[in-house]
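User: I'm putting together a teaching handout on how multi-component assemblies are represented. Below are the sequence lines for each component of a complex, exactly as they appear in our records. Could you produce the 3D structure of the whole assembly as structure tokens, so the students can see both representations side by side? Please keep the chain order the same as the input.
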Amino acid sequence: MHSMTELDDYLRENRERFEADLCELLRISSISADTQYRDDVLLAAKWVANQFRLLGFETETIEGSGHPIVYAESPQVENAPTVLIYGHYDVQPPDPLEEWVTPPFEPTQRDGNIYARGATDDKGQMLTHVKSAQAWVQTAGSLPLNLKYVIEGEEEIGSTSLQKFLAEHPQKLKSDVAVVSDTCQFARGKPAITYGLRGIAYFELRLTGPQQDLHSGTFGGCLTNPANAMCMMLSGLMDEDGKILIPGFYEDVIPLSDSEREQFDGLPFDEAAFAERLGIDRLHGERGFSTLEHRWARPTFDINGLWSGYQGEGAKTVIPARATVKFSFRLVPDQDPKKIGAALESRLTELCPPGIRLELIDLHGAPGIVVPLDSPYVAAAAKAIECGFGRPPVFIREGGSIPIVTTFRETLGIDTLLLGWGLDDDNTHGPNEKFSLTDFHRGIKASAYLWQELSKIEIGA
Amino acid sequence: MHSMTELDDYLRENRERFEADLCELLRISSISADTQYRDDVLLAAKWVANQFRLLGFETETIEGSGHPIVYAESPQVENAPTVLIYGHYDVQPPDPLEEWVTPPFEPTQRDGNIYARGATDDKGQMLTHVKSAQAWVQTAGSLPLNLKYVIEGEEEIGSTSLQKFLAEHPQKLKSDVAVVSDTCQFARGKPAITYGLRGIAYFELRLTGPQQDLHSGTFGGCLTNPANAMCMMLSGLMDEDGKILIPGFYEDVIPLSDSEREQFDGLPFDEAAFAERLGIDRLHGERGFSTLEHRWARPTFDINGLWSGYQGEGAKTVIPARATVKFSFRLVPDQDPKKIGAALESRLTELCPPGIRLELIDLHGAPGIVVPLDSPYVAAAAKAIECGFGRPPVFIREGGSIPIVTTFRETLGIDTLLLGWGLDDDNTHGPNEKFSLTDFHRGIKASAYLWQELSKIEIGA
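Assistant: Of course. Below is the structure of the complete assembly, with chains in the same order as your input.
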């Protein structure tokens, strides 16, 4: 067995190099949602592919109708497990730009963190699994097991190309377990293995009233105002107790077990401090559930954006011709996004007032998932995390969605180890996204030890 | 008493001269909103002032910080009523230019109409009251009553200078009644006296939740989303039947009298054609009232603009930190905008969910107004319109607000006769503004007879 001391030394000596590489990637504005940034997305893909080529991995850049997938395989090791590592090089749009302390694509170090769009989500986290492999290659000459990397550029917009690739090449991606670092620790210095994720169903609703904006004095009162209609319809989707008012919405929800609820209760969580960090005087969620349950294990309805009419200075007395809203439901096992979408459409049609035409666009959907805790892979990951972070992980669920985890289960028949190096105040998707550099290096170390621990598992048993 | 036959002849013989004068004024691009056109605005003021000087009226061009007010007085006639005539020589910007069939400042005759920016609003309508005075001066040597003209150049940008002038010189403007032609006939060939205007109370509501946008997966479910809150709060202001849900909102509404409702019902109004023109399949308003009642005589609640969160392409899974909405109520007599504002604030405070801070900004307000129909001034105007248009006027209300009418009531204690010669398809504020030349001449004649009819009223009674 390879000496981990030498590897530890390599990691310690190359900290600055790793950070410089991370900054290089963070400087690329690979915003997948905005077609204006198509070239930058491509540039990020090339950058990632080059990392693998430098390690001597067999590397492909798979181009289709969307943004490319970078695929790489480490040289084959017989009788050793195969691990599928998933990550993404695309990022969320950085809006609102004016709230960033330093520009989103000029990575800046402050207080031990690196600030940039994508720092945590997912460039920084993804890179830990590349740098850990680099450490193995540079110190041991090779890896102790088989790694297959699939790094996509459409995670923030629904992973269309990847889903297609997975469906078409299940044999190529055949693995024993998947590893994804795109989640969070439970708290600063409290690393976690995430065993459950919420799903999502994301929609855009467009309401149209009159053929053009109308004078609100001359016409006000005799026709339905699309903005008024929008508010009325959306408010008809959830009551004051946070209960979602779509017939059948809760039908397939698997209730939380007593042991899970107890375990969540046992986690140290300071509600007041959490609310203060968010800048609100009071948390508020579905009646009858705790805050961790609200965030991890209950479905939600959130408006993500909306607009209509006059948004300038002062007053303009207009009845808008149109109103648009983007909104999404977080789902939990076993809710089905397609079934939710159909129920939503009937509910909205029922709520739509006279004189308004509605168009509902299904932007993307994925079901929630829960991974079994009693596998040797989970045990290996727990050990590796203890090596990297100096303490054993806690077991948590997470409110976000990583649709690919569901697809890995369904297409490849494998479970995913969700090993999050981020923190929940990293501002992923918001302004001033950051990633702790300490955790970046701990993550690389945990990843390097993960290859070691996973290589010990007997496969084909 | 002066022979009206001679005056009728003068009007008939001078039609071309009047049209040539109108075109001269329409050629001046007096766009008050655009500082680039400052000289043209000034030129229009000089042109108007010159019209009065040619009639031997005492004329002033009052210059302040904004565009000048042209003020003129006809020679004094003892024991005769004094009429204040209001109009404006400024015009709206002509954009979008590419949609004009002929250029906005090259008046062109087509199908009996004159096409130009300002044709109806308000150069053409205003000029009818100048040309009618000219007819009197040229045929009778003088007017049978006292005319005070106040023609401003800031109507399209808020009348700041005029409001100041009125507040500072109420004695100078002392009159028995005001006349304004800046509205519409009820329909082609259906002249109208507008005896009621709605008021307005316009607000901006800003809701703040978390201190910045949050990931809707990580945080969704445990805090109030400001965009959700906004929809819920706004939908709590009006029910499905169009009834406004603010305690005391209807308290001061003077109900429509049976005779008013009957009179509105008697007006020929094609609901289906009207809906088609707006591009909607169905009109919809407060239960229990007709479409004309909805537009003219009932209060409304309309969202004028709103925005929150992500408005770009595709999906962004964010809980917005803020949500903002501009909305307004059209008011009817005797609703008080200040009282409505206070009641609104309590209602919104009551509707505001946990974890949301609200800020309500009062952008502007003005009460509605109704002119009594049983006054001798209204009777005189009705007679004059019958002489000018060949049929008696209908009595209508209008849904918009003309703030100067409220100011005349409050500052000078006088009512206003709103005598509209325009048509509601004249494209005021839009491309291809027009004015019917037939109605231009009818308006001049009605105005000439108005001076005759008003001069018969005994004042100081």
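A couple of points students might notice: Chain A touches chain B through 99 residues (CB under 8 Å). The mean pLDDT of chain A is 95.
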